[in-house]
């Protein structure tokens, strides 16, 4: 099944996350990851949702039905910068420290805590690179892992901008001639 | 105005400011402060005490559909508001402007499984256009304004406001002047001119053009514009179940209803047309049958106010987002000259002739009569509709509210719908049995001058008939109920007969003596068992200055034809001759 990356601008109000997630849930699609945070505009948040489904066009359209959703794009096939962060607690006996440290150097990961037999490392990068790093350190024993989920931003001048949308108003959701 | 008011008073003031003058509800612990405040406003805010919150919700829907205005219903926390869930879902499916006002437990116990606490905003999230939980009286003025704006604009729908008891009790100075801040909600009313011109171009080049008109035409008040447009281009018009009233059936361009129980000529016309213009309909699967086989030869123009409807079920060549009335006005403005339309006019008239010929060969209405006489039925349902139809046409000034089932489809097929928009009220999208009696209550409150006829089944009637008491308590006299009593959950029985070898599992149905039940509610009750008594009973109902119920004990196993089996192409219809 294909993974789709959807970016949505939403008003920052209670329940908005639930509404967006509910619209995806209604179809029985799985959300692989979801990241939300403030956007450049006060009162408006930007979400990146990774949905596992071959067909998300209707989800994207119906997200517009939600009152608090300002703009939605499926950026799966667009040129984007995608980033994800992973924090790992690794089992690292003193004998393995050296290897982990050099591996972190290769992946530009940061060591943020060192214990007698553990280390916490933090790594940020494109999702594939994060995946790669995890696989490389996995044989050493991952005690805990936490990933932020993907955030995505479209490259170049074509933006996904709150302010711009607020000004231009309603035309945004009108489908174009095919 | 900078006076301190309680939250509950702010609610009343807000409703009055938005033009609300009647509400349907039932009180209880959490909503009591609102009822306390309501008393002061009782000369401006009428409260209709219903017998069940489902009834209150459907009554508010009936009010809204009969007028186009906001319907308001009220329930208390817990079971009160969960009883509102069905009408809310119904309003969502049929785009009815509804405001549900819900009492919630105090904010200090919220989330602690307090007495009668239910997460109603969580429950109704997927079945409301929007909903709110309010815990602070300072938010009430704004929330009510925003909620009513959302419910009544764009594609209308239900909005729910859940208010904690303490937010109603505490005081605040309402700020009535806050501007709405809805960057994500800007409904598109004006259609795009480029698309309008595309649509005209496509229609002008058509050989077999067709209009399908839906609920959007009625909600936008676009029926006059629709008639002008159809007449100017000479296009045949099909009206969906919710489009009934959008175009008069006596008009020479009217074809009638399509879909699962639509007429053969309508469905065949859809399957054969080359340009299909759907205005204000959403291509529901009861209209399209198996969507992939729907209108295989047609280029589709779809005009809807909700962009997410376009391309949802049917592939669209020209999408138009906008209000139905403004869309038709724009189309009329962009019409080419008479000469440029000459080809279209010639083609459309051949096409119309062809469709009328189909219609003559498949006389759906006549087949009901033929079958009744061959089987020697003592009370064929058709006779009830024929008498009612004639009487309504003679008397005028009526609204018909139907329930869900065979009787509903018969009403759509057998009554002649010429009385304009908002004279046919039914539950289409959700198909909620029990809708009709309370919805008629709402319609009667809205139109005390009209006769409100309920046509319902013995099944649906037994779901919500307690509102007959509400009708009496409110002094409402203009409601007449026709129970099409076939002793079955008839529509389900029909499917069992046709597709499950008559295994009547869970469909035979008994009931009390409905006329006696009516009498017990201080209504007049009449029982009719023979065709010869039908007209007299209908006349008596009209002559009676008060609510009347007629129990029509019709032939038990009559089917609705034509019929498209579920998930089949609408080109493949079972008709009376082939199926029964
Ligand atoms: C609340 C609800 N429950 C069940 C159904 C499924 N259903 C659709 S039509 C029907 C039969 C209705 O029987 P009745 O009211 O007697 O009308 P009839 O079809 O006999 O005219 C049923 C059970 C429904 N639409 N709504
Ligand atoms: Mg029945």
Describe the protein's architecture and organization.
The complex is a heterodimer of chains A (178) and B (580). Chain A is an alpha+beta fold. Chain A is built from 5 helices and 9 strands; from the N terminus they run E-H-E-E-H-E-E-H-E-E-H-E-E-H. In chain A, strand 2 (30-38) and strand 3 (44-52) form a beta hairpin. The model of chain A is unreliable at 164-178 (pLDDT under 50). Chain B has 580 residues and is α/β, with parallel strands linked by helices. Chain B has 3 domains: 5-172, Thiamin diphosphate (ThDP)-binding fold, Pyr/PP domains (Rossmann fold, 3-Layer(aba) Sandwich); 193-361, TPP-binding domain (Rossmann fold, 3-Layer(aba) Sandwich), CATH 3.40.50; 367-561, Rossmann fold. Chain B contains 25 helices and 20 strands. In chain B, the strands form 4 sheets. Chain B has a 6-stranded parallel sheet with strand order 3-2-4-5-7-6, sandwiched between helices. A 6-stranded parallel sheet of chain B has the order 11-10-9-12-13-14, with helices on both faces. Chain B is globular. Chain B starts with a strand and ends with a helix. The relative contact order of chain B is 0.11. Chain A binds chain B through residues 10-11, 14-15, 18-19, 22-23, 26, 43-44, 57-58, 61-62, 64-71, 162, 165-166, 169-171, 173-175, 177-178, and chain B through 121-122, 125-126, 129-131, 133, 150, 181-188, 192, 194-195, 198, 306-308, 310-312, 317-319, 321. The site of thiamine diphosphate (TPP) has 20 residues of chain B, from helix 18, helix 20 and helix 22.
